Amino acid sequence: MNIKDNIKMAYKDIVAYKSRSVLTVLGIAIGITAIILVMAIGNSAKKSITGQIESLGPTNVYIMPGKMSEMMQGGTGQDSLKDKDYDDLKKKSNVPNVESIIPVVSSMGNASFESEDYRVTIIGSVPEAFDLMKLKIIEGESFMQEDVDSMSSVAVIGSKVKEKLFGQDDAIGKKIKIKEKYFKVLGVTESKGQGMGGVNYDNSVTIPYTTLQRKILGTKYFQELIVKIDTEANIKTAIADMEEVLRSNHNINDPSKDDFSIQTQEDVVKSVNSILGVLTILLSSVAAISLVVGGVGVMNMMLTSVTERTREIGLRKAIGATNKHILYQFLTEAVLLTFGGGLFGIFFGFVLSLGLITVFNMSGTFSFVFSFPFSGAFLGVLVSSIVGFTFGIYPAYQASKKSPMDALRYE
Q1: What is the C-alpha to C-alpha distance for residues 381 and 339, in angstroms, rounded to an integer?
Q2: Are 207 and 154 in contact (CB under 8 A)?
Q3: Beta-ladder partners of 191
Q4: At CA 122, angle to CA 119 and CA 125, rounded to 5?
Q5: b/e for 204-213, b at 16 or more Cβ within 10 A?
Q6: How many Å apart are CA 224 and CA 308, to the nearest integer?
Q7: Does pLDDT of 74 surpass 50?
Q8: Can you tell me the distance from the alpha carbon of 404 to that of 391, in angstroms, rounded to the nearest whole number?
């Protein structure tokens, strides 16, 4: 018997026991579906986030408080970037290649208008932040630098905030309440969804950073400084200048004791890819456990099948089938079952991941670009086939070793 004959015979045997075969295939399909689902959402998130970072321009550099290694371990260091750092970094005499600096402060809170109330992200920054975030103001206007200097209570709200608090009514000029303080709405931004740092701009309220720092949070430090360098060629020089300024301000002589971190856009993309890649692998590994369960199901089904088809095995051996023929027959059947489960798992994984990402995007919670993991699909089929081969060996071996005389007498 050749491979083609084995496959034909295995297919007929699978069809002959439809209910049992469907349950076996389903066990494998669930495992592959889970893996494809995790990988598809992970890839989509990675593609969307890196795309958003890259869209901001290749010359952006990000300064964050605390050492990156400490932040990865749960440390904060959130009070190390202060007004003097911001002011000194803006001076051309200190950092000649800096084009602009955007300070960022953020918090969570409720925004309310009359009887309506909505949970929002409060962003404190400067007027130039809207250009950096590629946020277009479609109603009204932005606040001005004078508002930042005077700590004015003015705000630009996201499209979702406008919808929740004002519905179809005009929001410009009206006052919303945030943490017991009233802010005059100057503008409304276009619908954009999720952006840098996981912030959903549609659900955000942007106000002068000085107002957020002193009137709401009672702080004098920044959570991030975004620096735009004049050209890509000058990024390394600018970073060296910025490090010198910050170390001088913080009285640091040993670079290993820096209480700040500077990342280029390339560094940020690598960090995001690394974190999401590790999470995807971990979640896929957990999902892969179900493949082992499915493999045990395949073994159980094949052992039952061997017992039920004992007379058939004896008859085939009596007319010339060798142990090898019987082994290959049952092994082919096991691999064919799991291969089919893998294909169904890929299909269900594709449909479910596309559906979930569509729902996420419609809800405004996330803004993902769907990315199907073709390498994961190939791996899914390969792994499911290996599972079938591995868990099918023992039942196939048991079948091949049956004595034809004993098998023919079996009732």
Answers
A1: 6
A2: yes
A3: none
A4: 165
A5: bbbbbbbbbb
A6: 69
A7: no
A8: 24
State the burial class of residue 145 (Cβ atoms within 10 Å of its Cβ: 0-12, 13-18, 19+): exposed
For residue 137, the cross-strand partners are: 189
Task: Tell me if 408 sits within 8 A of 318, measured CB to CB.
Answer: yes
Cα(151)–Cα(376) distance, integer angstroms: 52
The mean of the pLDDT values for the chain is 82
For the CA atoms of 371, 377, 379, 383, the dihedral, rounded to the nearest 10 degrees, stands at: 140
Return phi, psi of residue 52, to 5°. Answer: -65, -40
51 φ/ψ angles, rounded to the nearest 5 degrees: -65, -40
3-state helix, strand, coil in the chain (%, to 5): 60, 20, 25
- Termini Cα distance of the chain: 28
* Nearest CA-CA partner of 345 in 79, 77, 28: 28
Site of tokens 């009233």: 182
Per-residue pLDDT tens digits for 87-135? 999 888 899 988 889 999 999 999 998 888 999 999 999 999 888 878 8
Quick one: DSSP state of residue 216? I
Q: How many helices (H) and strands (E) does the chain have?
A: 14, 10
Tokens, residue 276: 């999401």
Closest CA to 175 of 159, 163, 151, 157: 157
User: Which two three-digit tokens encode residue 355?
Assistant: 């559906």
Map residue 94 onto helix, strand or coil: coil
Whole-number Cα distances in Å, 349 to 25, 36, 170, 332, 377: 15, 5, 44, 25, 9
**Residue for token pair 């009672």:** 218
Kindly provide the residue ranges of all beta strands, DSSP E only, lying in 32-97, ordered along the sequence.
60-65
Whole-structure pTM over 0.90, yes or no?
Answer: no
Per-residue pLDDT band for 406 (boundaries 50, 70, 90) equals low
Q: How far is CA 316 from CA 3, 312, 313, 409, in A?
A: 17, 6, 5, 14
The rounded Cα 326 to chain-centroid distance in angstroms is: 47
- Of the listed ranges 27-36, 241-250, 301-310, the one predicted with least confidence: 301-310
Other beta carbons within 10 Å of 81: 26
Q: Are strands 204-208 and 154-157 parallel, antiparallel or unpaired?
A: antiparallel
Q: Give the SS3 label for residue 257.
A: helix
Summarize pLDDT for 4-48 with one digit per residue, the tens: 777 777 777 777 777 778 877 888 888 888 888 888 888 787 777
